[in-house]
Amino acid sequence: MSLQRLLSIAGFLALAATTTTITPAQAQDGGGAALSEAVRGVVERHGAITSLVLAGKAAWDAGDFATAASNWEALLRLPRLEADVDRSMRPFAVEARKRAGGQSKVPPPPVATSAPGATPPAPESRPTGPATVSIVGTVAGGGAIGPGGTVIWLRRTDGRTPRPAPARGKVVSQTNKTFVPRVLPVTVGTKVEFRNQDEIFHNVFSLARPNDFDAGLYKQGQSYARTFTSPGPVQLLCNIHASMIGYVVVVDTPWYGQADATGAFTIKGVPPGEYELSGWHEGSSKMLKDKLTVSADGVRGLQVRVGGDRKLPSTIPDKYGKPRQAQLGY
User: Fold this and answer.
1) I want to staple 319 with a disulfide (CB 3.0 to 4.6 A). Which of 14, 80, 205, 229 is the partner?
2) Ordered DSSP codes for 43-72
3) CA 177, CA 199: separation in Å to the nearest integer?
4) Is the pTM of this model over 0.85?
5) What is the DSSP string of 110-152?
């Protein structure tokens, strides 16, 4: 229900008594005094509702969201507030308090009660999401580097893969002229902070389009942030220190994991179904691709093997793409 529609309803309620309670004895006597009292009480109550709604609306239109929130929170605290009014005004009260920047003071929704002897309403049927399970496995291979750092992710082949939420607090530190962690998996849309912990300058960059970037020179204690919007591996280099190398692996799925030094990995929260399993390892020249069926019990003991045939280039490019000798970096 829109705010304008609610204002019309509130105005109507202020002018008309929608419910009155008169005993049979009072009705037989004409109910004059009792009726007047009932009408007065109803009109006063709905007059208060209208006043709080309108005052909040005026404050909202003026950009005074704190006052709007205060009025509508007072409205929601009225005893026996009509359910349709509560449902209509509650989201506006929450939003007003959010825009005001304060802590929410919206009371919890009222609990519906039934008249004595009435049959209680059936509980509302809410759709439940599919149960999720875990994928537990081990990566082997990786050549001299070993399996550690392998990034494994899943995409559905029997349905839609949901867009993952960007991760928060992701940091790659430059410590002792190394990237820590060396391999960082993130979801698309994630902002990664590159933080210099060394007493020397660094110039982190990547030539991996469309996720390429150049952080420029920055000293100890400073950092550079980059949001990665496209899936794929992003090689990290330093324009000053040619020996530094690391990776950010961007995935477009919420279901991913990374192997530890022993090759063990776990992917949690996976709905049962059919999937394409992908894997990336810095020592492999090819991306791993395989099919995977996830049952209602999950997957245990999954064995994955990655290659170790990728050789490091004899020269490391600078941030302009020109080759340089590794020994020229210090």
Assistant:
1) 205
2) HHHHHHHHHHHHHHHHHHHTT-HHHHHHHH
3) 10
4) no
5) PPP---TTPPPPPPPP---PPP-EEEEEEEEE-GGG-STT-EE
Closest CA to 138 of 329, 257, 304, 2: 304
Q: How many CB atoms lie within 10 A of CB 75?
A: 24
Per-residue pLDDT reduced to its tens digit, 251-304? 999 999 999 999 999 999 999 999 999 999 999 999 999 999 999 999 999 999
Rounded to 10°, the helix 65-76/83-100 angle is: 150
Q: Which amino acid is at 101?
A: G
Choose among 72, 78, 62: nearest CA to 3. Answer: 72
Q: How far from 269 is each of 154, 272, 310, 315, CA to CA, in Å?
A: 11, 10, 32, 42
pLDDT in tens, 198-238: 999 999 999 999 999 999 999 999 999 999 999 999 999 99
Q: Distance between CA 236 and CA 101 in Å, rounded?
A: 39
Q: Can you give the length of the chain in residues?
A: 330
The alpha helices in the chain, defined as continuous H runs, are: 3-15, 24-28, 32-61, 65-76, 83-100
- Specify the 3-state DSSP secondary structure of 272: coil
219: its two tokens: 């000293």
Going by C-beta distance under 8 Å and a sequence separation of 6 or more, which residues neighbour residue 117?
Answer: none
Residue 152 near residue 253 (C-beta atoms within 8 A):
no
